[in-house]
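so my prof wants the structure for this chain in the C-alpha cells format not the other one, which i didnt know existed until like an hour ago. anyway here's the sequence
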Amino acid sequence: MVPDSPTPAAGAPDGELRGTGRTRLGVELTRCVGRRREVAEARRLLGSGRLVTLAGPGGVGKTRLAALVAQEAAPDHRDGVLLVELAELRDGASQADLVAQLLGLRAQSGRSATGRVLDHLRERAVLLVLDNCEHLVDDCATFVHRVLTACPRVAVLATSRQSLGVPGEQVLRVPPLSVPGPGDTPPLELLARYDGVRLFVDRATAVHPGFRITEGNRADVARLCGRLDGLPLAIELAAARIQGLSPRQISERLGNSLALLTNGSRTAPERQQTLRTTVDWSHGLCSEVERLVWARLSVFAGSFDLAAAEHVCAGSGVDAAAVCGVVDALVDKSVLQRVEVDDGDARYRMLQALREYGHERLERSGALGGVLRGHRDWFDRLTHLADARWAGPEQSRWARRLRWEQANLRAALGWSVAEPGQAGVALRMAARVDEHWTLLGLDAEAQRWLDRALAAAPADHPDRPFALATAALHALWCCDLEAASASLTEAERLAAAIGDDLLTAQITSVRVLEVMLRRDPRAADLAEECVPVLRAHGDLRRELRTLALHGIIAAYNGDLGTGREKLRRVIALGEAGGGSHYRDMALFGLALIEVKFGDVGAAAAAARTALASSTLDSPFGDAFHLETLAWAACKRDQHERAATLFGAAATAWELLASPIAHLVARPHREFTEITRQALGDRRFDSAHSRGRALPPERARRHALDDTPAPGPERNPLSKREREVAGLVARGLSNRDIAARLLISPRTAETHVQHILVKLDFTKRSQIAVWVTLRQDETAETTGGDAPPAA
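here's what i got, hopefully its the right format
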C-alpha cells in the first residue's frame, strides 16, 4: 500500500512494505490450529461483498482468524492489507486519526482525518482489517459506512463481539473449536480429528515438550477440552498449566475456570491474559438489563428456548416483554450463541466461562435461589405437559424437545433433591415420561434420580408408589429383576392402603413385564386384569405397552393367533395417533414371535417397517430391530448378513449403556451361536466387526436392504489425489509432496484442498486416519497386505 509520502509517519506499522502494494502482517509466534472452513467461508463472503464481520465471544480466536484470512486474501487486493488494532483505543472519534497515522498521511489544515483517509483510499484496492470493534461499535459503523460508500474498491474485514449493523454487512459467527461431546472418549487415533484437542496438545508441548496423549490420559484430555467448550483462549490457558498439573488435575479443578485459567502469555493484550479479564471486557459492553438477563440465564444447563428464558428472567427489573430483545442483543454481543435445531425453533446456549461469570454475579446479588427455583418450576411444568401429551400425534416432537432439555432436566432434578422440602417435586419430575429416559439409554440414570428423590421425600408422599413403580420399570430395562421386584412390592403395599384402582393398575402393568421376564405363568392373567382399568381411565400409554406385552406372552404360551391380534391392535392404535414408540414396540413384538414361531419373512418385514418409519431416532429401537433382523437373516441361512447385523446391534446395545435386554437375551445367544458355527470364528468376527463399525444411519440403511455385508466404501478420490493422500498420511508437507510428484507447491495445495472437500474433512490429520483405515479394511477383505496408499 502506497502512502502519500515515501517517508512513513512516526508510528507507522512495520507490517507495511512501502511502495509495493504488498503487505506483511504481524508474524504469529504460535502455530495456528484448525479454522480451514472458516477461512474458506470468510474468503467466499469477501468475494461476494465488501464488509465481513467475524463475530464471536472473547477468546474464540477472531483476531487470529482475521490474520489468516487477510494473509490468504492479500493477493486479491492490489494495494495491500492494512491492519488496524482498535482494542486500546478508547475514543471512537480517534479511529480515523489512527488509520491516517497507519497510512502515513500527514495532517492537513482544514481536512479531517476521515476526509484524508477517504481521499487516500478512494481509488485503491485495499483490504482494511479492523480488529476489536465491539467497544467502539457505533463509531466503527459510521466510519466503515463512509469508507465503503466513498471507496468502491476497498473491502473491510472486521472482528467484533457484536455486528456493526452497516448495510451490506455479512456476519460470520466464529464458533469454538471442535471438541468431544460430553461423555465421549474417542479412540486415541481419532482424537486428532478435534481441533480443540490439537490446540491443547500444541500449546501443552510448547511448555512441556515431553507431553503426549496416551491411553492413560486420553479420556482426561477429551473431558478437559469438552468442559472448556472448545474456547481457544481457555484451552491455551489450561495447556499452560501442564507444567505443574496433569490433564486430570486440571479438569478436576475446572469447577471455577475463571479462577484457574490465569497467567497467560505476557505478550498477549491485557484483556486476554486471563479468562476473567476477557469476560470482564464483554460484561462492560452490556447495558444494565443485559447484565441482569446474562446472570439469570446462567442457571440454564446446555441450551434453552425463548419461552424458558422469558419465564426465568422476567421480574425484578426485567420486563417479560423485553426479554426477547435482550436475548437478541446478547446474541449480537456474542454472550449467547444461537443453536440451530431441526424443528425450526431457535435455541440458545452460553459458553461455560460466560455461564460461570453470570452465576457468580447472580450469587453475589443474592438472587440465585429464586432464579434456580424459577428454572426448576419451568421444567416441572414442561415434564407435566410432555407426560400429558406423550401418547399422541405430538410424541416425536416431545421426544426431541426432552432430548434437547436433558441437561436442564438434570439441573432441575439436582436442585430439587438438594433443596430442603423440594424432593417431592423431583419425585414427580423423574417419574414422568419414563420412555424419554429409556429411548436415550438412560434407564440407570433415571433409576438413580428416583432413588435419590425417594430417599429425600417424606415417607407418606402421595407420589411415592408411582415413583417406586417407575424406578422398577427402569431397573427391568437394566436387567436388575431383584431391585425391580423389591420396588414393586413396596409400591403395591402403599397403593393398597390408598385404594386407587388406576394407581394399582399402573403398578400392575410394570409387574406384568417383571413376571414375564421371569417366565412366570401369572403374566397373562395380570395383563388381562390391568388393561381394562387402564383403558377405562384413559391411560393410553400403559394400556398400549401392556397390550403389546400381552401379545408376546400369548404367543410364548402357544397362542400365536391371539399374540398377532393384540400386537396388530397396538400397531393400529399407534399409527392412529398413539405414538411411534408404542407402534415400534409392537412391531418388535410381532417380529419376535414371527421369527420364533411363525413366518420369518413377516418377522423381517415388521422389523424393517419399524426401522424405516420410526420418528424417534433412538438406540433403543435400533437395538431391538437390528437384533430381530439378525435372527431373521440367520434363519434364512444369510449368515454373513446376520453376523454384520449382530455387530450393528451390539453398537446400539452399547449406546444404551445397559446389558442386552432380558427380552432378547436367550434368542440372541441361540442365533449368535448358530451363525458363528456356520461361518467359523474368523469370518464371523470379521463380519461382526464390520457391523460394529457402521455409524447408526448406515447400519439402518444396510438393515433395510438385502445387499451383501458392506465392505470398504468406494474411494471417491482420483488416482493423483490418492497419491497425494498417501503422502499426507506419511507426514509430508505440501512442498515435500510437490518435490516428490514433480508438481508445483500450489498444485499440491490444490490437491489437498480437493481431498478435504471430497472427504468432508477439515484437516490433514483426518486424511491420514482415513488412509490408514482404508489400508486396514483392504487387508482384511483381501486376506493379505494392503496395497500402497497411492
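also thought this was worth mentioning. The first helix runs from residue 36 to 48.
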